[in-house]
Amino acid sequence: MAQVSQVSGIRCEVGGRLHPLAFLGCRELNYGQPSALPLHPFRLSVPEAALAGLLDEPFNSFIQTCREDDLQYEESDLPELKEAGYPGISAMLAGHRPLLADMLLDFMIGDLLAAIGRASGYRPPRARHWGDVEAADGRAYFTINEVQKVTFADGQAIFEGQGYDGVYVIWLTHGDGRK
C-alpha cells in the first residue's frame, strides 16, 4: 500500500499522518452532511499526470451523460462544461482547471477513491448472496465525509476536507437471494 503511494506519487495524510491508500473510502449516503463520528482533516495529493489514468473511464461517462442531458433538456446543469465543448480530462487539465476542480469536488470524488483503491490492490469481498454479512467490507479505513477544496499546485491535484475513521455498512436483510 505504501509502495503504491511512493511509486505513483499519490499520498494521503489524515491528521498529518500518512494513511494507506487501499484503506480510503467515501461516504456515499449523506455525503457532506454532519457526522456523529469525530471528523479529522485529510489531504489527498494526486499527480496531475495520474488523474487521466485513474478517472478516464468514469470521467468520459460523466461527460457523455452531461452531453445527452443537455441535448434532452433546455437548461444545462453545467453550462461551463457545455461552453467548453465537453472536453476530456486531459483537455480540462490543460485549459479548464477551475471547472475540473469543481467537477472533481462535486461529482468525481467517489470514482477517484475507488480507482485509487483498485490501483492499491484492494479488492472488495464478493457476497455469496444478498445481505451476506460475512462478505461485509470490514476493513478499518478512513471515510471521506466531505471534500471542501480542490486545488492544483506543483503538478498535483490536492483534495482537502474532513472524514472519520471507520465505515458504515447498510445491509438489505429482506430476501435471501434465492430464486
User: In terms of quaternary structure, what is this?
Assistant: single chain
| Counted beta strands | 6
Helix content: 25-40%
What order do the SSEs take from the amino end to the carboxyl end, as H and E? HEEEEHHHHEE
Structural shape: globular
**Structural class of the secondary elements?**
alpha+beta
Q: If you compute it from the alpha carbons, what radius of gyration comes out, rounded to the nearest whole angstrom?
A: 18 Å
Largest sheet: 6 strands, mixed
Report how far apart the termini are.
40 Å
- Supply the number of helical segments: 5
Order the strands across the largest sheet as they lie in space.
2-1-4-6-5-3
